[in-house]
User: Which sequence fits this backbone?
């Protein structure tokens, strides 16, 4: 069965890095600087036996007159509506932030299928943030390192019962 996975979360948590790893091509731009990617971009992903469409949500980095909160809500809602499953990414090194809580609320209200991923979890620096991710109340989080390709089996295990 084919399905669509949307990667959502605040800027700089590693969404595009994960998108690129899943798609295997540099379709989404990754940068230390905010303002590099915009809106929703789509690619075809492979993970173990699964083939699916993945959406990278960006565009929150753009400075506009519009409030960040409003754009976050609209973009996330749009991604959720196009997706069967949402991968909600937080930065394990920073832990759960107030902005992450806003995303969690949106996802809860939308009643979306959510997998919480604590990214940047390579090494020990992410352990506290990973544990904090349980408090989002969106199920058991997984540890990922998009940059190092760690945790992809756990992502597969989390997807298999849903799709
Ligand atoms: P996005 O704004 O959520 O799309 O985040 P990006 O994919 O553009 O990544 C933001 C920054 O985090 C970049 O400097 C990435 O190299 C870095 N990054 C992404 N994934 C990881 C990871 O697993 N570990 C570490 N340490 N850094 C990462
Ligand atoms: Mg990005």
Assistant:
């Amino acid at each position: 069965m084919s399905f669509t996975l949307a990667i959502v979360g605040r800027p700089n948590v590693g969404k595009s890095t994960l998108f690129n790893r899943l798609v295997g091509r540099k379709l989404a731009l990754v940068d230390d600087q905010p303002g590099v990617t915009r809106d929703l971009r789509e690619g075809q992903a492979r993970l173990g036996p699964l083939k699916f469409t993945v959406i990278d949500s960006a565009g929150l980095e753009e400075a506009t007159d519009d409030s960040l909160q409003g754009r976050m809500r609209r973009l996330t809602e749009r991604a959720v509506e196009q997706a069967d499953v949402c991968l909600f990414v937080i930065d394990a090194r920073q832990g759960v932030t107030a902005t992450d809580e806003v995303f969690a609320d949106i996802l809860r209200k939308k009643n979306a299928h959510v997998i919480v991923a604590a990214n940047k979890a390579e090494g020990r620096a992410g352990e506290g943030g990973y544990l904090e991710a349980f408090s989002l109340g969106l199920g058991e989080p997984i540890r990922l390192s998009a940059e190092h390709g760690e945790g992809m089996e756990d992502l597969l295990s989390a997807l298999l019962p849903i799709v």
Summary: Residues 32-37 have pLDDT under 50 and may be disordered. The CA atoms of residues 5 and 85 lie 5 Å apart. The helical segments are 15-23, 68-82, 98-109, 127-132, 152-159.
